[in-house]
């Protein structure tokens, strides 16, 4: 924030420290920071939006209800039914819908001016979401196949006996470690990298605009690119919410599938 | 010249996923062009492949910041 306001003398590139923004409270792990406030605001917004657009349910939907139904339809038909299968998908639609809307609104906060901070660029938030998904897909898998049966179902049938331990080990690592870690890191990395790129373009452009000479032109071009990157970031933010929900549905679908 | 070699590492780690994501979307566009009605079926697969391939680049940027210090 302060890097834009101050007349620059020596440029320092934005880094990880831009994302640490405690609002009040102590400076330690219990500080109330900007992302947690945004998370609360986002949750409130989603709840308000859903209540407001579905309070008066009409057979011929109004504009608000139409929008809500479009988003719900995307998650329900486009993600849950396609990937979990038409038999069991309804159980998981609430979770997937909550994941999608929460991530989407929080991501859009990254480019909407009064918020201007993608909540998921702090690693703790994506970790929490991916832990929920991780617990859910293991638990539903164990409920369906039984504890032993679930771990057995990791290995595809018809494998030569000698291969089974190695494949089981690989699948175990994938299920217990790689999947939750990549799920969290992907969302975090995209939000973090995208936001830092916008900050870099804007502060760098500001620095060049203030330097005088030919650099003023370069600074103007940089700001145009900052605008383009912001638009691109909008696309990425939607895509990441979609991909996170898609992968959560895929993992759940894999756990409840009759056979791999 | 000053800088950090971890960022170079990120650049290297982005090459593979860059090629991979390109191949995935090339195949997706090919598929949709040949059979437009298969779009709904191909789209989740394409994005899934993209997400999995992209993970390597994401690891790269995360590790670049981890080892920057």
TrEMBL record, chain B:
The organism's place on the tree of life at top rank: Bacteria
V-ATPase proteolipid subunit C-like domain ranges (all copies): 6-66
Pfam families: ATP-synt_C
Main location: membrane
Location in or out of the cell: Cell membrane; Membrane
Membrane topology recorded in Swiss-Prot or TrEMBL: Multi-pass membrane protein
MF GO annotations: lipid binding; proton-transporting ATP synthase activity, rotational mechanism
Function: Key component of the F(0) channel; it plays a direct role in translocation across the membrane. A homomeric c-ring of between 10-14 subunits forms the central stalk rotor element with the F(1) delta and epsilon subunits. F(1)F(0) ATP synthase produces ATP from ADP in the presence of a proton or sodium gradient. F-type ATPases consist of two structural domains, F(1) containing the extramembraneous catalytic core and F(0) containing the membrane proton channel, linked together by a central stalk and a peripheral stalk. During catalysis, ATP synthesis in the catalytic domain of F(1) is coupled via a rotary mechanism of the central stalk subunits to proton translocation.
NCBIfam families: ATP_synt_c (TIGR01260)
Record protein name field: ATP synthase subunit c
């Amino acid at each position: 924030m302060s890097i834009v306001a101050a007349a620059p003398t020596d440029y320092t590139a934005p880094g990880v420290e831009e994302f640490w923004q405690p609002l009040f409270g102590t400076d330690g792990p219990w500080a109330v920071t900007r992302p947690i406030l945004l998370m609360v605001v986002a949750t409130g917004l989603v709840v308000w939006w859903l209540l407001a657009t579905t309070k008066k349910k009409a057979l011929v939907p109004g504009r608000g209800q139409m929008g809500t139904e479009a988003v719900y339809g995307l998650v329900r038909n486009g993600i849950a039914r396609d990937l979990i299968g038409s038999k069991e998908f309804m159980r998981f639609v609430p979770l997937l819908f909550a994941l999608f809307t929460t991530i989407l609104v929080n991501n859009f906060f990254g480019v909407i001016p009064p918020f201007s901070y993608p909540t998921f660029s702090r690693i703790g938030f994506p970790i929490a979401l991916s832990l929920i998904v991780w617990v859910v897909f293991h638990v539903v898998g164990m409920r369906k196949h039984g504890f032993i049966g679930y771990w057995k179902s990791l290995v595809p049938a018809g494998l030569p006996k000698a291969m089974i331990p190695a494949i089981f080990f690989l699948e175990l690592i994938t299920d217990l470690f790689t999947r939750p870690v990549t799920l969290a890191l992907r969302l975090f990395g995209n939000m973090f990298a995208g936001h830092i790129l916008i900050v870099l373009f804007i502060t760098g452009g500001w620095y060049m605009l203030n330097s005088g000479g030919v650099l003023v032109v370069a600074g103007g071009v940089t700001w145009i690119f900052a605008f383009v990157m912001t638009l691109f970031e909008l696309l990425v933010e939607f895509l990441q919410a979609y991909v996170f929900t898609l992968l959560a549905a895929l993992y759940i679908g894999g756990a409840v599938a009759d056979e791999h | 010249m000053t800088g950090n070699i971890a960022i170079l590492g990120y650049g290297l780690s982005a090459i593979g996923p860059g090629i991979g994501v390109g191949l995935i979307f090339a195949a997706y566009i090919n598929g949709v062009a040949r059979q437009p009605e298969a779009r709904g079926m191909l789209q989740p697969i394409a994005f899934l492949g993209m997400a999995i391939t992209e993970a390597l680049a994401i690891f790269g940027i995360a590790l670049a910041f981890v080892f920057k210090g």
